[in-house]
Amino acid sequence: MEIRKKDENGIEFYTIELTGQSGMSQSALATLAGVSEAAISNLEDTLLTQAPSKYLEPFIGKPLTLLTQDAVIDGRKQGNLKIYKSTYCAAVLQHYADPETALGGGLSKEQRALQKATATRSCFLFMQVGIDLWIQRITGWDQRSRVALPHTNVYVQRIEHMRDHTIADDLWCVFREAAELLLLIEKDWRVPINDYDLLDGSIGRKWSDYRKGKPWATEKGEYIHQYRDRRDVRSAAAYSYDELPYFRAWLRDEYVPNHLPNYLITKYGKQATQLIYSEIGQLTDGLLELKMVKRSSPADDQNLEKFLAARQLLDEKFLQADN
Questions:
Q1: Partner of 15 for a Cys bridge, out of 22, 102, 179, 232, CB 3.0 to 4.6 A?
Q2: Banded model confidence at residue 211, pLDDT cuts 50, 70, 90
C-alpha cells in the first residue's frame, strides 16, 4: 500500500495514496497532545480496561490504526507500520485538551497547563479545516488523484427503505427474503458495496433459473420496486407463498455455498474473496482449490488493495452511524 509521509519537526504524518485516509504515528500524536508516548499507549489500553472519556467512547472495540501491511513509502517497503487513524487522533487531542480530563502521573499544575495548551493548539489547527484535510495538506496528497471507491452502507440503506416498495399481501419478493443475507454481507462480513451492486438481483436470476420446470412452481406475479436514484420505479418478480419454503432452502443450501463465492470473486477478485472466507472460517479446501489461485497478478494485488481501502471507509461509516 503506497503511503505519503511528511516529517514536520519530527512529527510524522501519513496519507494513503489510494484513498486519502490519513493518520499519524504514536510519537507524533504524543507530541501534538503534549504527553509521552507511554501515555498514548496507556490511553489505548484504557479502551479495554476501564471507562474512557466521552471523546474515546466511540472507539471501544474499534480498530484504531490504518491498514499498513506491506506499506510502501518513497518506493521502499516498510513492513508493518502503526499509524493511528485521523479520527482517533482527533478524539485523543480533544481528550487531552479538555480541562476535565485527568492525566495523573504526578504532573505539576504548570506541566498540566502546558500539556493542555499544546493539545488545545493542535485541536485548533485541525478543527479549522478538518483533520483529514489538515494532514492531506501537510503530506501533499492531491484530492484529484483519489480513486473512486465503493459507497458505504448501500444495502443497509436499501433495507431501511424497504417500505418504499409496494407488494401484494399474498406475494413475496427476493429482495425482502434476501435482506438478512444482504446485511450479513455488508454489516458482518464488512464487504464494501457499490450503489448499483445488486446481490438480490443475482439471487433473483439464479432463483428464476432454478424454479423453471419444477412441479411446485406457480405463476409469477410482480411488484413495484422503488429506487432512490435514477433507476426510479421498476417492475420486479414476485412469487406465491407456496414457493417460499423451496426458496429458503435453495438460498441456504445452494446459493450461499455455491453461487455467492462466484459473485464475490466477480465483484472483488479472488484475493479479497479468499480473505472474506478466511475471516469467517469458511475457507474450505474445495473452495480454495476451485476458486483461488496460488500466485496473484499485479491486477489481483491492486483489486485487493482497493477492497481493503474501501472496507476501511466502510468501517468508518459504521463507526459514525453507531454514534
A1: 22
A2: very high
Query: Around 189, how many Cα atoms within 13 Å sit in the side-chain half-sphere?
Result: 25
> What type of residue is 201?
G
Q: In what order do the strands lie in the sheet with 22-24?
A: 3-8, 11-16, 22-24, 84-85
* DSSP symbols for 234-286: EEEEEEEGGGHHHHHHHIIIIIIIIIHHHHHHHHH-HHHHHHHHHHTT---HH
Half-sphere exposure of 257 (CA within 13 A, CB side): 8
Q: What's this model's pTM, rounded to 2 decimal places?
A: 0.54
Residue 301 φ/ψ, nearest 5 degrees: -65, -40
Whose CA is closest to 85, among 307, 310, 313? 313
Q: Give the SS3 label for residue 307.
A: helix
- Determine the longest span between alpha carbons in the chain, in angstroms: 84
Residue 122's CB is within 10 A of a number of other CB atoms, namely 25
Q: Locate cell 494485488: which residue?
A: 301
Burial of 119 (0-12, 13-18, 19+ CB in 10 A): buried
- DSSP state string for 93-150: HHHHH-TT----TT--HHHHHHHHHHHHHHHHHHHTT-HHHHHHHHHT--GGGPPP--
Instruction: Quote the CA–CA distance of 288 and 165 in Å, as a whole number.
Output: 39
User: 161-173 burial, b if ≥16 CB within 10 A, otherwise e?
Assistant: eeeebebeeebbb
Amino acid at 227: Y
79-111 pLDDT per residue, tens: 667 888 888 888 888 888 876 665 555 566 777
Could you count the other beta carbons within 10 Å of the beta carbon of residue 145?
Answer: 9
Please list the residues that pair with 171 across neighbouring strands.
240
